[in-house]
């Protein structure tokens, strides 16, 4: 059973439907008694960082996630879910994150000729080999929708990036904690490979 964490953010059902299509049973819930019996967890979501952390806090999920990660269990953050894995965000103020991966979340600082949000298909560039990007080649496309991105992170945690005026972290990993800034559930065959790699860890 894969646990999809319900903390008030959007896009949970798309992830659930994709997992079902891949043959995996999953549950959307904020009940820690249910989540603790899951094999792996996913934090999907679109929305604001502050609201995301508030949703986790109000559902008493932060201490649960801390224990989950300390126990060496697998956690995947998608889009906003990935951003919540970092130390801090500067989206409409300054907000503490979960702190599972070193780094900050910052707004794009790019010329006006580039549109924000960074939305649509963009190429993945592999920074280092890892099981999470097994069978994924440089130049495969994934689907992004985001206005903020990870920054000041350790290079050893950066698995893959995309270029949008500069290098934008796309797949990150620190041990059993993994993040994908794009939407694998909307990224066709490449997204399917990435999700299956996570589910097969």
TrEMBL record:
<dbReference type="InterPro" id="IPR029062">
    <property type="entry name" value="Class_I_gatase-like"/>
</dbReference>
<comment type="pathway">
    <text>Amino-acid biosynthesis; L-histidine biosynthesis; L-histidine from 5-phospho-alpha-D-ribose 1-diphosphate: step 5/9.</text>
</comment>
<comment type="function">
    <text>IGPS catalyzes the conversion of PRFAR and glutamine to IGP, AICAR and glutamate. The HisH subunit catalyzes the hydrolysis of glutamine to glutamate and ammonia as part of the synthesis of IGP and AICAR. The resulting ammonia molecule is channeled to the active site of HisF.</text>
</comment>
<feature type="active site">
    <location>
        <position position="185"/>
    </location>
</feature>
<dbReference type="Pfam" id="PF00117">
    <property type="entry name" value="GATase"/>
</dbReference>
<protein>
    <recommendedName>
        <fullName>Imidazole glycerol phosphate synthase subunit HisH</fullName>
        <ecNumber>4.3.2.10</ecNumber>
        <ecNumber>3.5.1.2</ecNumber>
    </recommendedName>
</protein>
<dbReference type="GO" id="GO:0005737">
    <property type="term" value="C:cytoplasm"/>
</dbReference>
<dbReference type="GO" id="GO:0000107">
    <property type="term" value="F:imidazoleglycerol-phosphate synthase activity"/>
</dbReference>
<keyword id="KW-0456">Lyase</keyword>
<dbReference type="GO" id="GO:0000105">
    <property type="term" value="P:L-histidine biosynthetic process"/>
</dbReference>
<dbReference type="InterPro" id="IPR010139">
    <property type="entry name" value="Imidazole-glycPsynth_HisH"/>
</dbReference>
<keyword id="KW-0328">Glycosyltransferase</keyword>
<dbReference type="GO" id="GO:0004359">
    <property type="term" value="F:glutaminase activity"/>
</dbReference>
<feature type="active site" description="Nucleophile">
    <location>
        <position position="79"/>
    </location>
</feature>
<dbReference type="InterPro" id="IPR017926">
    <property type="entry name" value="GATASE"/>
</dbReference>
<keyword id="KW-0808">Transferase</keyword>
<keyword id="KW-0028">Amino-acid biosynthesis</keyword>
<keyword id="KW-0963">Cytoplasm</keyword>
<comment type="subunit">
    <text>Heterodimer of HisH and HisF.</text>
</comment>
<keyword id="KW-0315">Glutamine amidotransferase</keyword>
<keyword id="KW-0368">Histidine biosynthesis</keyword>
<feature type="domain" description="Glutamine amidotransferase">
    <location>
        <begin position="4"/>
        <end position="194"/>
    </location>
</feature>
<dbReference type="GO" id="GO:0016829">
    <property type="term" value="F:lyase activity"/>
</dbReference>
<keyword id="KW-0378">Hydrolase</keyword>
<feature type="active site">
    <location>
        <position position="183"/>
    </location>
</feature>
